[in-house]
Amino acid sequence: MTAKRWQFWIDRGGTFTDVVALRPDGRIETAKLLSENPDQYRDAAAESIRRIVADGDGIEAVKMGTTVATNALLERRGTPTVLVVTEGFRDALTIGYQNRPDIFALNILKPAPIHARVVEARERIDAHGNVLVALDEAAVRDSLAESFDRGIRAVAICLVHGYRFREHEVRIAAIASSIGFTQVSVSHDVEPLIKFVSRGETTLADAYLTPVLSAYISDLQTELATVAAPERLLFMQSNGGLTLAAQFRGKNSVLSGPAAGVVGMVETASKAGFRRLIGFDMGGTSTDVSAWSGRYERSNDSEIAGVRLRAPMMKIHTIAAGGGSILTYRDQRYQVGPESAGAVPGPACYRRDGPLAVTDANVLLGRIPVDQFPRVFGPEANQPLDTAVVRDRFAELAAEVSADTGRTVLPETVAEGFLTVAVESMANAIRKITIERGEDVRDFVLCSFGGAAGQHACRVAEVLGMRQVWLHPMAGVLSAYGMGLSDIRVERQASIDAPFASAGLDDTGRRIHELLTEVDASLGDQHVPPANRSFERHVGLRVRGADTIIEVPWGDEASMSNAFAAAYRNRFGAEPDSDKLVIAVARVEGMGVEATFTDPDNDPAGEPLPAASTRKWEGDAWREEPVFERDALGAGSHIEGPAIIAEA
Predict the structure, then answer these.
(1) What is the Cα–Cα distance from 353 to 491, expressed in whole angstroms?
(2) Which of these, 40, 67, 481, 611, is most buried using a 10 Å CB contact count?
(3) How far apart are the first and last CA of the chain?
(4) Number of H helices and number of E strands within the chain?
(5) Maximum C-alpha span of the chain
(6) How many C-beta neighbours within 10 Å does residue 117 have?
(7) What phi-psi label fits residue 542: left (phi over 0), alpha (psi between -120 and 50 degrees) or beta?
(8) Which residue has the higher pLDDT, 178 or 612?
């Protein structure tokens, strides 16, 4: 793909912002900046573009993934929001489904709610659309005005049966807008499906997070305008598809960054001939693991930070173990995370008086060759990693461990212990998405990417018994690279709740056509040529009296019934009662391919020659090992280990 102007593909993580720039001549540049560096710049994405683009150059598109909404949800730093529900349902979201993840826990600690206030609207519409209690508009107005006077500017509206009978939700939304609320999310627009609790929480999350995203996007556009305003600014959604900034919503943003990593992994590794993949994406703050066996795995029901979300998301398992995960010795145990040193102050070696972190353990043990690491630290951002402070801190910790256990331990032994704990934590996350689902993890290829994954990939593979580890040439910035390989995706769904019979199928067909028209129009608004648009149509079926919905492709009655029966047998080991099927949901997804991008070929291998050597702790002693530069290795290079391969 040759662009006439620049494109930038950017992944803004919790610690680093990764940048892949597609030049006007088709060549690629990369950059990696600290996500937060207030002494040097306001926004890492805009700063990276400023450093690469020359004056007068135009930017065709900026495609981004961001953890802004994810972090706001995790840390409960979203917009104060008032929740409007039907009278009598004030505590419905707090009660939830009464799940007990830890059934033997005596002290149940629930995540803090994300709404600041609850307003009960006196109204009620039954399941058939009959108004049982008329909406008391005056009371709703008074309650919302009181919330507005308290400084709340976001409102989430979710009424019983509001997904289907929208009149009261529409009227309350109009009242909220007239009062001055700047963010109004209504359930029939955000998530028009049955199930009050998950519909309510999704609507609430949308109201809570969308203003945070909007503020970030506005600030980013202001910063970009000082460099060169892009023709289009697109963001990665949790489902692995891009959308224009104006259509990027809170409910679709929670897995924005990790989803692009999965796309990057699949689009590159599958073209290299691999068919079963485990994604091992380790950054500075967390590690994301995913699986692929020929199709993307997505879920419509997820729980993130204690909030149930009904929105299409990549199936990604995240643990708090990244390069910046803080190392602590407590209760005679080595503990890694969940707290992270982040970008500021960062690990101890970053020269900002940060705590010991996983990266520091790798520095002490020689697993990170300091001479090959970028010199981006210190007041002038031009100094190398600080190895002296790392040695001093680990020596202090080793003395503490020795005094506590009565056995003399070396600083290197302490660092090895912390790495063992971190590797086991990552391996357990991979077991959860493979072995616990009946898959043999040894049949998969470990696709390692992210800034810190290469330091641990071989050890993780050894623990799991995996035979192959694969690293793309862009492995260090693969989530950013995935932005450029992603399609634009638009999804619309609607609740049907009709018998699986001729009349119900006819109504469903008409509704699917309406949804497809909406999706097609949205792709057009996002500049996708008609020839590049494709669509998938699905229906969710369930047995009458059950609430488990199984999705099958839309087609004729026999094919849908057979597909449902096969999926039901696979999941439950029994035959469904096919005479009692109900059409629960209709869903249409549209994909827009902008252009096809092809990885550049690697040159054939010559004799690999080490660029340097370094001291590395192996088992119980220091050994001298060669360091090879990745850029100097051609296709088919063969290296006898142990050795270190360093990327730029």
Answers:
(1) 46
(2) 481
(3) 24
(4) 15, 28
(5) 81
(6) 16
(7) beta
(8) 178
For residue 446, what are its two tokens?
Answer: 């470990």
Residue with tokens 């010199």: 375
Residue 403 CA to residue 105 CA, distance in Å, equals 34
At 573, is the secondary structure helix, strand, or coil?
coil
CA 410/CA 55 separation, integer angstroms: 54
Q: SS3 of 334, please?
A: strand
Take residue 244 and report the two structure tokens written for it: 């224009």
- Cβ 494 vs Cβ 596: under 8 Å: no
**Stretch 188-204: mean pLDDT:** 89
Radius of gyration of the chain (CA): 26
In 242-251, which positions are buried (b, 16+ CB within 10 angstroms) versus exposed (e)?
bbebeebbbb
Q: What is the structure's pLDDT at 174?
A: 96
Alpha carbon of 403 to those of 113, 237, 397: distances in Å? 43, 50, 10
Q: Which residues contact 258 (CB under 8 A, 6 or more apart)?
A: 65, 281, 288, 290, 314, 316, 318, 479
Q: What is the CB neighbour count within 10 angstroms for residue 164?
A: 17
Q: Helices 256-269 and 478-485 sit at what angle, rounded to 10 degrees?
A: 80
Supply the DSSP string of 145-177, one letter for each residue.
HHHHHTT--EEEEE-TTTTT--HHHHHHHHHHH
Average pLDDT on 150-161 reads 95
- Mean pLDDT (whole number) for 312-320: 82
For residue 414, how many other CB atoms are within 10 A of its CB? 24
For residue 83, which of 197, 6, 246 has the smallest C-alpha distance? 197
E-state strands within 401-454: 445-449
Residue 222: count other Cβ atoms within 10 Å of its Cβ: 13
Q: How many CB atoms lie within 10 A of CB 530?
A: 9
Please give the structure tokens belonging to residue 344.
Answer: 């500021």
Q: What CA–CA distance (Å, rounded) separates 587 from 491?
A: 7
What pLDDT sits at residue 32? Answer: 85
Is the CB of residue 210 less than 8 Å from the CB of residue 249? Answer: yes
Is residue 628 within 8 A of residue 643, CB to CB? The reply is yes
Residue 319: both structure tokens together: 């643990």
Instruction: Please tell me whether residue 401 adopts helix, strand or coil conformation.
Output: helix
Of residues 372, 602, 595, the one with CA closest to residue 471: 602
Structure tokens at 37: 């560096």
Angle of CA points 338, 340, 345, to nearest 5°: 160
Helix (H, G, I), strand (E, B) or coil at 179: helix
- Residues linked to residue 625 through DSSP beta bridges, in sequence order: 614
DSSP states along 516-558: HHHHHHHHHHTT--GGGEEEEEEEEEEETT----EEEE---HH
Collapsed DSSP state (helix, strand, coil) of residue 508:
helix
Alpha-carbon distances of 565 from 496, 508, 548, 561, 580, rounded to whole Å:
20, 20, 13, 6, 12
